[in-house]
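Readers of this paper often ask what the protein records in our data store actually look like. An entry from our holdings is shown next, in its original layout:
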Amino acid sequence: MKPNHNFVQHLRDDVPASLVVFLVALPLCLGIALASGAPLLSGLVTGIIGGLVVGLLSGSNLAVSGPAAGLTVIVLDGIEAIGSFEGFLCAVILAGAIQVALGMVKAGVIGHYFPSAVIRGMLAAIGLILILKQIPHFLGIDQDFFGDIAFFQADGRNTFSEIVYAFENLRWGAFLVGIISLGAIILWNQPFIKKSALSIAPGALVAVLLGVLVNQAFVVFAPDLAIQSEHLVQLPVIRGIGDIQQELDFPDFSQFFQMTTLRTAITIAIIASIETLLSIEATDKLDPEKHRTPLNRELRAQGIGNMIAGLIGGIPMTAVIVRSSANISAGGKTKMAAFFHGILLISCALLIPNILNMIPLAALAAILLNVGYKLTKPILYKQQWNLGYDQFIPFIVTILAILFTDLLVGIAIGMAVGFYYILRANYSTPFSFITQSKDTHDHYEIHLSEHVSFLNKASLAKALDQLPKGSVVEIYGDNTKYVDYDVIEAIYEYQHVAKERGVTVSLINMPLEGVHGMLVSGQANPTAEAVSAGHSY
């Protein structure tokens, strides 16, 4: 199905969705920049470019790009290794160029090899982490940066100990704001609201406005409950063009050809590309209309975005599943939702930074709690269980691995488990085995499947080795399109053993392509005609 490009028709869906994505993206841009050791404005610059540039160049209707929590350590280490943020920007530019090259050589095909169980596990894990990580912010504890997904935190605690600490040090003002904001979101999800004129305003926007009003009421009537500035959005205040020039950082091109810069760029390009492909695959699975995003185009779009970000002082970007899932759950239909969220980021940062700085983080945490729940609903676990253990185990392992490590390590562990079950399935189902009795000999038929790869060599060799002495075996390739060279070699090697055991082996209607290499090299004794006709030898 092709993406829907009728932007005007879907404006009534995309504009409200862009508001929700904006509210989610704003604190994430600032929090990730802070955790990366980069200027706060650099995160905002990347979020803006992710919306305005990548949002238009991408082939995805629903994906939203921006700074990614998974790159914070790489950015932090890169700035330290190169020696300055201005020098690091050269690495961001180079990383973008590498991504463009990867898209041109069609490296995006890698994205098609992520098992579905692992992608679903990633989505569920992100949802679970969103819930666990937002609980402290919901309770007024903001020592861990907004948007962190790693188990071990910079403040010395982990995901679970942070929750315990938050309950022990609960701030009642923030908690009350969080409860009211979450209540508004739940209320706005009810059918009677959706069918009324109130549905024009997104629930997330209502939640934020209520959070601001309640906190201002605390300031006037209950100062002890008022939320302090460190627990509100902290956007740099820009009062004019001069402030923009002063706040923005530009690359130090003297660092462009340094080996440290190149190594950092390669690392960013690889990790950012993997995170992007994972997020795109996950977004496509969440897409109600099941569009398929062209992955090579996405890599090129991300590369161009990163090159522009590096030129004007932004940190690296990827497609991000948290923003993308917020877009989907808010009803976004086309790429204009991502584009409009970029417009909102730049407009509000320039025009109303003081108003944005009145938003309590507890209210934004309520929005992310709702997004997290939608990603990790209990029914998802039941559905995976019903698919069988070969789907459920990679799914649950991926969740646990991401929860207790970080996104990329968790995905790697989930992929390893997923590939184990793929190899296991290939190992056990390359052929069907039929036993018959003819004359005085045990007679066996082995019917090969459509495609027999080197993964099937071991199971076929084992089946042949177990044949009793004096038996007759016929190996059929009627429905087989290709037999791997390694499998043909295993059969040929078995023939020498078979003669000693009095076993007669016949190949019937085998595809000649798989045998061709051995016939040309002179390794195999039978002629192609004998193999095709089914002669014994």
